[in-house]
Every structure is written in structure tokens, then in C-alpha cells.
Amino acid sequence: MMAKPVYILNGPNLNLLGQRQPEIYGHETLADVESMCRRAAAGLGLDIRFHQSNAEHQIIDWIHEARQGADGIIINPAALTHTSVAILDALNACDCPVLEVHISNVHRREAFRHHSYVSLRADGVIAGCGTQGYVLALERLATLLGRQHSDSRRG
Description:
By secondary structure, the protein is an alpha/beta fold. The protein has helices at 22-25, 30-44, 56-69, 85-92, 132-144; strands spanning 6-10, 48-52, 72-76, 98-102, 124-127. The longest helix is centred in the N-terminal third of the chain and has 15 residues, at 30-44. It has a five-stranded parallel sheet, sandwiched between helices. It contains five helices and five strands, in the order βααβαβαββα. InterPro entries: DHquinase_II (IPR001874), DHquinase_II_CS (IPR018509), DHquinase_II_sf (IPR036441). Its EC number is 4.2.1.10. It holds the Pfam family DHquinase_II.
């Protein structure tokens, strides 16, 4: 049976990564993050579909697509984290593993950022690790999927 891809979904304003608030989000662009994810995924034997949208309905459509066509979802819902019951409902309709990623440590920021609807469904949450959080999520997903991978950091 052929493995399905992993969907990496990015929410609003992440298209401005590297330009918007670099003191919080860093200087890497979303294209840099995608390249990093593609390299990491290849090393883990994973195929990815990398998407970003500022539109909630588009993210929901990708989650619906992933229900049948993905081995897992990694999602950085950005500001929709704190507001979107609709994204939570879409994720609840998926049986595959879901990992939530945030570049910044949302718990060190404004109080409204401390609540995540997505966390109610996520199998894991990675926050405050910068863009490396995406690679950590791919590594965790590979583990959840039972994929073997070589990692020079581990003995």
C-alpha cells in the first residue's frame, strides 16, 4: 500500500513570514520553511503537500481533502487557532494524526493567544521552537506513523 502525503497547512499572515514582526517570528520566509520541510520529509520517507491561505474556508477545504488523501496533518492555524470552531470541527472529522505548530511561544504572549481550539483535537502541540517546530512535527508524525528514519542526532 502506497503511503499518502502529509499535509502541512499554514493559516493567515504566514505568507508574510520573514517580513512581519521578525522579532517574534524570525527572518525566515514561508518559502524557506517549505524548503526545510521538504528536506526533512525526504529524510523521513514522507511526501508533503505544503499550503498556506489567509482564508479560513480554504484551510477547511484542505482538511476535508486530507481526510481521504493524507497520512497526517501538521497545522499552524496562526490567528485562527484562537477563533475557529470550524477548523476544529473539520479536524475532528479526520482520523489521521494531527500536530499543531506555532513558531512563537503563544503562552508568553497576549492572554487571548493562550487558548487553542485546535489543541482540543491535536495529538501534539509544538510551540516556541521557531520554524524548527515544523521539522519536530514531521519527526513526531513519522514516529506516530511507524516510519523508520535515520537521524544523526540519535545514537
